[in-house]
Structures are given as structure tokens and as C-alpha cells.
């Protein structure tokens, strides 16, 4: 089986967020896709089916626990890989069909590999937590009121709903302490949490057991950028730079550019560099 290993949101090999891109999409069932993702032990893997004319690209994304309808770094990594496979040195655009939505991605060749920009669309502001809900979340994350910035905790989605927890201190100590954290998030309409330092623009997120921390999360960067635009920043022609992965020894940087129209967010572009690591062949 044809596979490729790339690092996403990375400046050099063996940095950023690793991703395995699998082919044979049409011959694999759900169980096999999940098992292959577990074998690679990365936060997510992506499985792709490409028609010969390159006009139709279908993909499915798996974590080690389940399939996701959307994720950021797998789409960025896949688009870079598709550009390499095309052999075209000119900038390209791709439409990638997932389970419930299609994603447009722009790619361009760089000296090291490729740079990709993904359109996440208009954010959905789902829910603002009240004070009692906020206290439950802080206790579950090993945080206190002193750590939290003077802004609300809010669930925002650009394809995957994240609970944004804005903090001004304590990111080093943040972790999931409770076993039922996923149920707590579900009660707010969120899938995952993103602890976000609004002073340094640095984020952290984990699987909902708190066992695995993600290195660089494109699907959370969109909601984080939407949050910043709503509460802190004026629209700018410059991207917001979001850091992640420091606590795992793989510091990564995600670019988020917010487009506005008539004083509301119309689209968010999440971008980053991709580095090729290896071609893999599964027997």
C-alpha cells in the first residue's frame, strides 16, 4: 500500500505535526483505517482517493479512537502531497471532499517542499459558558480564575467545535484531570478543548482522556483566530501566528488569516509549511 509521511506546520524535518497519508481508500473498511492510524500512533491519519483527472479528491480522517468529519493538519498535509504528485511547479488549488463538507486548499512550491492554505469558511459561534460552567471547566483543566483572561469561554467551530479557554497565565500547568471530560464538553456542544494564551498566542489541546497532546491543530486555529477577532483584535492584512507543540519538543507555528465582510468574519485561512519525511510501503 502506497503511503507518505510528512510533517505539517514545520520548518524542518522531524518537527511540526507528523501525518501519514494512505492510499487504497476504496479497498479499506473503517476498522482497517482505524487500525492503520493506531499503528502509526500519530494524532490523525488521512486516507485519500484521487481520480486520474485530479478533479475529484475524497478523503477520510481518523484519530486513534475514531473518524473525524474535519481536521486541519491532515488537509494541509494532503494538499501538499497532491501538489507533489501532480508534478506541477505552479501554484495549485484543490477541492477535497470529506464526509460532511468540502475544503478548498491553495498550494505553492517552496525550496523545501510546499506551503498550503486551507479555507475553513465562516465560523459558527455556538455557545458562551456561564460562570458555573466556566468553573467546572477550569477545575477539569487544572486552572484557576487567576489564570483566565477577562474574556468568556466560548464554543466556536469552523468544522469541528472547540471550547476556547482564554488564559493569560498557567499554560504550563494546563492538563485534563477528569475522566469524564468528553461528556463535559458534549454538554456545551464542543468536541475538544483549546487552552489559548491570548498574550503569547499559544495553544494546547489533547484527546479527551488527556493522554495524548496534539502538536499543531489546524482545526482549532480557525476557532482561535475567530475568537481573537471577535474579542481582541481588529481585522488586519497580516496573519495571526499561533504557536503550539512546545511542550512536546516539536514547536510549531500556524498562520491564521481572517477575512471580514460588513463587519463580520466571512472566511478564515489556515496556512503552514509542509516538509516531506518519507515514502512508505505497507505489505
Give the structure's gist in a few sentences.
With 283 residues, the chain is of the alpha+beta class. The protein has 5 helices and 16 strands.
What does this protein structure show overall?
The protein is 20% helix and 37% strand. It has five helices and 16 strands. It has helices spanning 30-40, 72-86, 131-140, 181-187, 218-231, and strands spanning 2-8, 17-22, 45-50, 57-62, 67-68, 92-97, 102-109, 114-119, 124-128, 154-157, 161-167, 192-197, 202-204, 240-244, 252-261, 264-281. The strands form two sheets. It has an eight-stranded mixed β-barrel. Strand 10 (154-157) and strand 11 (161-167) form a beta hairpin.
SSE order, one letter for each helix or strand? EEHEEEHEEEEHEEHEEHEEE
By secondary-structure content and strand pairing, the structural class works out as alpha+beta
Overall pLDDT: 95
User: In order across it, which strands form the biggest sheet?
Assistant: 1-2-3-4-6-7-8-16
Strand content: 35-45%
**What is the first-to-last residue Cα distance?**
6 Å
Number of strands: 16
Computed over alpha carbons, the radius of gyration is: 18 Å
> How many helical elements?
5
Helix content: 10-25%
Low-confidence stretches: none
Please state the overall shape, judged from the principal axes of the Cα atoms.
globular
| Biggest sheet record | 8 strands, mixed, barrel
Give a quick set of tags describing it.
283 residues; five-stranded mixed sheet; alpha+beta; eight-stranded mixed β-barrel; globular
Task: Please specify the SSE layout and strand pairing.
Elements: E1 2-8, E2 17-22, H1 30-40, E3 45-50, E4 57-62, E5 67-68, H2 72-86, E6 92-97, E7 102-109, E8 114-119, E9 124-128, H3 131-140, E10 154-157, E11 161-167, H4 181-187, E12 192-197, E13 202-204, H5 218-231, E14 240-244, E15 252-261, E16 264-281
Parallel strand pairs: 2-3, 4-6, 11-12
Antiparallel strand pairs: 1-2, 1-16, 3-4, 4-5, 6-7, 7-8, 8-16, 9-10, 10-11, 12-13, 14-15, 15-16
